[in-house]
Specification:
By secondary structure, the protein is α/β, with parallel strands linked by helices. The protein has 19 helices and 16 strands. The protein is elongated and about 80 Å long.
Length: 483
């Protein structure tokens, strides 16, 4: 990785933008103060900032024991950046904004390619942010991990900041070339404005950080402005994350199972495994509350392993105690499927329970397949080779493609409930479901209809040739003993 090392050195010694390091503020005799700090803007771009303010920041930066550049990227560190932002607000900046940038799914890079590649990607991201800062009069720093902060001078107009954020998100959509690797990593951006949202440096950074998480909650690769109600949601998420970390140790999780049957038959042949959580306060926390937090924090990997082992043990028990065994279907999160060791986790769970692969199915959404991720693709292929069934969940929700149905040898398609809702009264919806079932039949794929709630829906689906039905008409999620 010699080429990468050379690029890394360039990133480290390249004159950075404003606040690059203590020496960046010293005049070298060949450039003005503005040039010495690595920026090309004229002094008028700093409304209200006097030479006294620059002097104050200079003095702060000279204290190397407390303020220093980040060792990985060469950018100003978290403390370094916040102190300078505080100084500039205190000494006369009338309008500005903080933009908080997070690299989406960065943990996958470290897990898949190692921490050195992760550091190289951070170098490349830092260099891209430096260029952006120079072009748009923004101070850039590294907050920690895969998070960066920008301080935009003299600007708090929402429309102008929207344009900047869109440009930043677009810039990060371009792949990073690291030696022989081309790695794509998108960005989520949060924006807080001075003095509209806050008047203190730490407050602005915190609010921009909160807005960034709101952007991630919207799917990432976008931006959000801070709004006061975000703090409540962020506090709730932090509280959930803190309790989630103890939930496995305290045995707070349990499984429920929703039956999947053939039309007209009462026999339960397949069940979908559903995770439930009663926390240490004896409160039921719904999946839509804790699953996003688990995915964002990375805790979903440990939780997912627990689910796999518990589901396989239950399936093995049914195999030993029932005349007809039950296939357990387990949902896999994107983070799990992007983990190179996911199939090892699946294999370990089956071996520990003594469960044949044919009695386990892994459900994934279409969104995961169209991502064209090499690790996800490899995991899907390996699951099939292992003999584990692969089911495609929520089919028809906007990402449908025939190509991956044949490429990955999908064994089961689950038709999204949004289509089933309308088949009794909407001829177009009925025709679409019929077409989906026809495609599945032609590919020898098992078809499951989700969200079946009426006898009319069940009768229509049976007439259309659907193999299995799932929904409240068939059965609500229940504990294992109820099956």
């Amino acid at each position: 990785m010699g080429k990468v090392a050379q690029q890394v050195d360039l990133v480290r010694i390249e004159p950075a933008n404003f606040l690059q390091g203590p020496s960046a503020f010293r005049s070298n005799g060949n450039c003005s103060t503005g040039q010495a700090i690595g920026r090309t803007f004229p002094r008028p771009h700093f409304p209200g900032i006097s030479s006294t303010v620059i002097s104050i920041i200079d003095n702060v930066r000279s204290d190397r024991s407390s303020f220093h550049s980040d060792q990985v990227t060469g950018l100003p560190s978290r403390v370094h950046f916040q102190s300078a932002l505080h100084d500039m607000i205190t000494n006369g900046v009338s309008e500005c904004a903080v933009m908080f940038v997070d690299l989406n799914k960065f943990r996958r890079i470290n897990k898949c390619f190692g921490h050195q590649t992760g550091d190289d990607l951070l170098h490349a991201a830092a260099r891209r942010l430096r260029r952006f800062g120079i072009e748009h009069d923004a101070v850039v720093g590294r907050f920690g991990g895969d998070e960066f902060v920008l301080f935009v001078h003299g600007e708090n107009d929402a429309a102008a900041l929207n344009a900047l954020a869109e440009r930043l998100v677009s810039d990060f959509a371009e792949p990073h070339q690291l030696d022989s690797l081309s790695i794509s990593v998108t960005a989520s951006v949060g924006i807080a404005r001075f003095p509209i949202d806050g008047t203190e440096a730490s407050q602005l950074i915190q609010y921009a950080h909160t807005a960034m998480y709101a952007a991630k909650d919207m799917g990432g690769q976008g931006f959000r402005h801070f709004a006061p109600d975000m703090t409540t949601r962020a506090a709730n998420s932090l509280q959930i994350e803190g309790r989630l970390r103890q939930a496995l140790e305290n045995n707070e999780f349990s499984l429920m199972f929703q039956p999947i049957v053939r039309p007209g038959s009462p026999d339960v042949l397949i069940v979908e495994t559903l995770l439930r959580w009663k926390n240490d306060q004896n409160e039921i926390v719904t999946p839509d509350q804790f699953i996003p937090v688990a995915e964002e924090s990375g805790l979903i990997l440990d939780i997912g392993r627990w689910v796999l082992h518990a589901a396989c043990r239950q399936a093995s028990h049914w195999r030993q105690t029932r005349a007809t065994p039950i296939v357990v279907s387990v949902n896999a999160s994107p983070l799990q499927l992007a983990n190179p060791k996911f199939c090892d986790d699946v294999q370990a769970a089956m071996e520990a329970a003594g469960l044949p692969p044919a009695l386990l199915a892994i459900e994934m959404t279409e969104r995961m397949m169209v991502a064209e991720d090499a690790i996800i693709s490899a995991n899907i292929c390996r699951l099939t080779q292992m003999g584990v069934r692969v089911a495609l969940d929520d089919f028809g929700t906007g990402y449908s493609s025939l190509s991956y149905l044949t490429r990955y040898q999908i064994q089961c398609i689950k038709i999204d409930r949004s289509f089933i809702d309308k088949i009794e009264c909407d001829l177009q919806a009925r025709a679409l479901v019929q077409a989906i079932i026809g495609i599945g039949k032609s590919l020898n794929v098992v078809m499951v209809a989700e969200g079946v709630e009426t006898q009319g829906q069940a009768a229509l689906l049976e007439s259309l040739g659907c193999d299995y039905l799932q929904g409240y008409l068939i059965g609500r999620p229940v504990v294992a003993e109820a099956l």
